[in-house]
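fwd from M.: "can u put these together and see what the complex looks like"

so here's what she sent:
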Amino acid sequence: MSALDKPAPVNVARQHDVATALRAFLPAASVLFSAEDVKPYECDGLSAFRQMPMVVALPATEPEVQRVLQTCHRMQVPVVPRGAGTGLSGGALPLGDGVLLSLAKLMRIIEIDPLARTARVQPGVRNLAISEAAAVHGLYYAPDPSSQIACSIGGNVAENSGGMHCLKYGLTVHNVLKLRAYTVEGEFIEIGSDSLDAAGYDLLALLTGSEGLLAVITEVTVKLLPKPQRAQCVLAAFDDVEKAGQAVANIIAAGIIPAGLEMMDKITTGAVEPFVNAGYPLDAEAILLCESDGADEEVADEIERMKAVMHGSGAVEVRVSQSEAERVRFWAGRKAAFPAAGRVSPDYYCMDGTIPKRALPRVLKAIADLSLEYKLRCMNVFHAGDGNLHPLILYDANQPGELERTEEMGAKILKLSIDVGGTITGEHGVGVEKIDSMCDQFAAPELAMFHAVKRAFDDTGLLNPGKAVPTLHRCAEMGRMHVHAGQVAFPELPRF
Amino acid sequence: MDATIQQLAQTLRDASANKTPLRIVGGDTKDFYGNPCTGETLSTRAHRGIVEYEPTELVITARAGTPLAEIEAALKDKGQMLAFEPPHFSKSPPSPLTPLPHRGEGKSTLGGCIAAGLSGPRRPYAGAVRDLVLGVRILDGAGADLRFGGQVMKNVAGYDVSRLMAGAMGTLGVILEVSLKTLPLPATELTLHQQHNEVDAIRLMNEWAGQPLPISATAWCGGDLGIRLSGAASAVEAARKKLGGDVVDATQAATFWQGIRDHADPFFAKDETLWRLSVKSTAPAITLPGTQLIEWNGALRWLRTDASASDVRAAAQEAGGHATLFRHGKSEDGVFHPLSPTLAAIHRRLKKTFDPAGILNAGRLYPGM
């Protein structure tokens, strides 16, 4: 989809009926429909896409969520679930004829069980709030997307969010035990269990990352981990991006799984340094941040091994954080990369492809070439350990044609990610943003299977329609029907 | 598409058209597991071999018929492992009731390992088989060749159909290829032995799991508690000092953990009905009659008992989990824990989605699907 696609008009005729039906059981203040009231919901973290919702519903309890779903199902109104609205792919973009179902009022931490190391929370609880509440027990919730101060756990599950520490501690899917959820008809389901697995198909994996298309989550039980005794970070500077990429491979080859392994290129360090004074070597072509955490003895050992690998890989400078303050300073620049992009450019567009690490030099070279071709600057930050690349294309939406050029360049980067054996999205989701690139990544029979999986949960197609999986028709119209091995789904069907 | 796949796909198309039930078989080492399922044998053994293994990417891709042992040897050669410690049930002789043509070569294959979805002692610390699955290539019931996921750690494009295949007992597709995340072998391993009663053992295992200790397996049986430590020598040594107990001879320890993993341990040798209770790790001691072996910090309780299926299922549910009739059970009791009506309906619709003719391992997971 393109941000330039026109928003749909709000269905004013139905608005009154739907709002009235919802106000039969929700307080008036929890059912919004006037333009000024619903304006804050017109977009999520991907602000290039905007659409006014027909009605916004703000239930505060599980039974209220259920009644919203039952009501919408009875009236055949599409429902778009929304958490904190920080998503970067437009997964919570409203519909002009739909109800935006905000789960933000379900924000209670129901229980922390320190001995079992679990937290049972409502979907509107912020990611960081779980770790804060668990801290007194020496525990924390591992997945830490960079928006963790604001993003909610319900949204994390819907998007299968990652973060800086995924390589060692996994994604959301690895850290969730159980969900309470409602189907589009408003029927209750419990997915997963308080144990480490559940009977039947792994619906927990299927729901995690399903972008709100299969069910609405009303409670999440997450796994908590013991806080490491100590964390220390190695900062290594390289005069060549390829050498930095090789150093990443060498770290893994040495049998080390770092707690975090991040790369920033020269444009990025140059952009962030003035804001955070992290002390980055600004003449380096790339820097790596490599973190070790765990028991004291283990970290001491691992840091020595990491240093040796960095030197052996040709680092021109290697520093080790000597205090917690210094470690935080090393990371401050990485964490400030997005805000810094916002300061050096009026607008930026963040990509999210994941690639095999060995393809890094090729991909970075190609991005540099595209940057010249499209006359757009690009900052590269990279979850190097797991191959998740975040090129930030800098542009100015007020310059005619720049947004179009940006989107085109972005799509080319995603295509490149697929071509080297990777994926169009590592952690931000498809949403509306990358829906056309799905036509490049999957063949028609696979897309058809995704639609069939959706129907197994939501036969009516009322739950977050139009997101995550493109229609075959759309792919065909885009001229991007991807056929591998000569296979087409339902070859007997005519194809326009 | 290579010839083996074409042949498998053709078999599926024909079986689908004729509604011929198929029984998918890899190494045929887990014939005992799941509900009885009949059908023409569809062997995946010919589709074997490692497709790609790049240690620095932490990913291995192999065909379904590849023996697990072959994969593990290739990984070990590069200092890596399958961290979920998959069981190899190769030691168990085929049941005399199994018709001869169905008896395999007695070697667990990758496909069977994924389809059964079983993980070994390291599971609570390093993840389950589903946690390490990155991508699959399958043939659905109609013979369509489909790929989901991929070969990278982080991938949220499309629904996570790859992990759905783990534990689906072959009812959703014939697995052709799997990509798995690999992890480095620990530098050192050491096993400690302590003596505790069941209640204390459950409490201690959970307390330790809440501390930054390099524990990689726990097993309690009849008053004996085994604790395996894995990691840097310094960290293992520090944990040994902290936890105390006798250090078990390394060879003996390796045999012990392998015995737990592969059910070669004497506990599993009896012909009594064996239940697998997956419960909340802190759940109080299960009070049913019989003998228990506890793993996973208390989250997995193997129970040999003659208690009724309904009593065992009720106890597991009360303990926050579910019970599987693992071996030597009565077929009328069903192997897997019953689902709620809403979830059962979703299961049936998913089955129909992937296997419209209902020919793949029909009934092996639940009756009628």
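replying to her w this: Chain A touches chain B through 98 residues (CB under 8 Å).
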